[in-house]
Each structure stands twice: as C-alpha cells, then as structure tokens.
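Whether sequence alone determines local backbone shape is best considered at the level of individual chains. In the encoding step, the backbone of a single protein was reduced to a row of integers, each denoting a local shape. For completeness, the protein is quoted in full, as a sequence line and a line of structure tokens.
***
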Amino acid sequence: MFFTASNLVHYLLSRGLLRSADVTGNAVMVLDARRRNRNFKVIIDAQRGLFVKQVSADDAARRLTLEREIVCYQLAAQFPQWASLVPDLIDHDDRRQSLVLQLFPHAENIREYHVRVAAYSTTIGGLIGEGLGRFHTAVPLSALSEKQQVFFRRKPSWILSFKEANDGASGAVVQLLRYLQEHPELAMRLETLGSLWRFEHVIHGDMKWDNCIVFVDENQEAQMKIVDWELLDIGDSCWDIGGIFHSYWVHWIQYQVNRRVDHKDLNLFEEFAKAEALIAAMRAFWLAYISALQLTGEAGEALLLRAIEHGAARLVLTVYELAHEAARLFGETQLMLALSERILAVPEQFAACLLQSIVDE
C-alpha cells in the first residue's frame, strides 16, 4: 500500500494515530512533502500535526536508511539532551515501510527561513550552534552498548574518496570528476581529510540548513529540532560542523555571489571577507557551539580549522548532488568548486575572518 493524500487519513485512523473527532468537518489537511521518499505533512490543528515518511519496499537501500532512522529516534530517547533536539517518534510500521513523527505545524527549515527573510541572523546562528554542540556532547561513546555500537557503520563520507563516475552518470558528474582530475591538489586534500577522519562522536552525518527546523513554542521562544537522521554514524564531528558552514556558503553563493553579472577574476576570499553579515552569523554559530563544548583557546582554533576544511569538502558533495541530473556544471556549482578549492588551499585565511571578529569583540 502506497500512501497518497487521499488514503493516508484512513490509514492513520486505522493505526489509532488520528481520532474520528480530528477529521470531523474535514479539518485535517494532508500536504504532499515528498523529496527522495513519499513524505506527507498531516496538519490536525494549529498546534498538532504528524509527519509521515514511506519508502519503497522494493528499494533495499531506502529500507535500510529508514530502519536506521527508526533506530536513531529510539536511541535518542535514552539521552535527554539528544531527545530534546529530535521530533518524537510516534509510530513505525515495518509492513508499510513507514514511520510517523511529531510535526510542528508552523516550523520551517533554516534554508526556508533565510530565503524568506533575505538576511543572516545571529540569533538563528546561535540556536544552531547551541543545538549541535548539545547533541555532540549528549552521547559519550562509552555509554553505548556493544549491540548499539554494531549499528554504526563508521564510514567517512564517500565524497572524500570520489575517483570514478558510475555508468550512466550525468554529463555534469563526469565534468566534476574531470575537474578533480585536473586539480589534483583539491582531490588530494579531500583524500587527506578522509585519511584523518576521527571516530570520536555520534554524528548526524548530513547536517545542513534543510535538516534543521525552527519554530516558536507556546512561550514564544525560538526552538530548533534536527531531522532526517538516515546517515547517523560514529564519526568526525567536523563533518557536522562543516555541514553548517557549508550551508552558509551555499546560500551566499546562490543568492549573492552568483547573481552578479561578471564572475571573471572574482576573488572569493576577498568577497567573503567583506560579507560582514554572513561572517557575523557564522561567528554566532561557532561561538555557541564551542560554548556548548566548553572549548577555548588553541583547541578551539584547531577544531575551527578542521571544521572549515570539512565545510569545503561538503561544498564538493553539494556540487555532486546538484550535478546528478544535470548536463553540465553551471554558474553556482562552478563557484562552489572554486570556493572549495580556495578554502582547502588556505583554510587559515577563512578561519582568521571568524577569529578576528571574535577578537574585535
């Protein structure tokens, strides 16, 4: 049974996840929110809702990621700091290859927020940093049982060892591979990050603005939840931190840099150094993160440098994702590659922008 907007309410009633009173007068709304999977938002009223995700029973890889996500929510419930950052797991149905999560009807992901307000927020930056720091300190590896440890794959991101395209790869993916071959220093730096990968924290594995939702609670206080835990692993915390840095850079390229008429001879570091609002928001994120970890001095600076390098690697992964069905690399993906190459060549310059802002305070 594949869920549709028309049959989902009946299914939820049969599972006891909706009451007859909820659907009286057709007050319940079902919104198609599909991305890679069949996703639906079920709005019950102004304060209550359900998020339903279903994968194809014929897709073994998707089934595995769904199982991983279900285990994640069950595991998070054992650690209060982590549990406070994720929606509640309300139901899962092995037969239907589906799960049901708590939905926050008025929430938006952080990418949507930035597109809507067209400005960078230090408040939001701090909220992300505090939340991610809380998550990274919530689960000591020693607290995981042997059975729980087996659940984690302990694999660095595949983009750090990307060397060949699959048969039938798009023209843009082939072009990306050719770019890496023609820029061996960039490829070597990615490979080095993979070889130095640290298995030190439980990590989200796909941290980015799209997977952080924000909303105002009943006390009119801003709250954040982290969603989409399919790539949960034991790994390098800098991959998660870098994922947020990368989100700032992607938005900056898409909505500011790429909208200029002429990219010729553009010095991306100089442009970044002049982007004061962007740097302020990234700084707020970083300060909140290291505050949550109670990290200062040289240890904090070293972590920042590694996180910036991982953020550059995440840019390459985003280029791949955007290139997956494209005939060729286009303006913004070319800028992302150029920025990634520049960051990995001189990560100290980009770190200094954030650290200098901190010193100036």
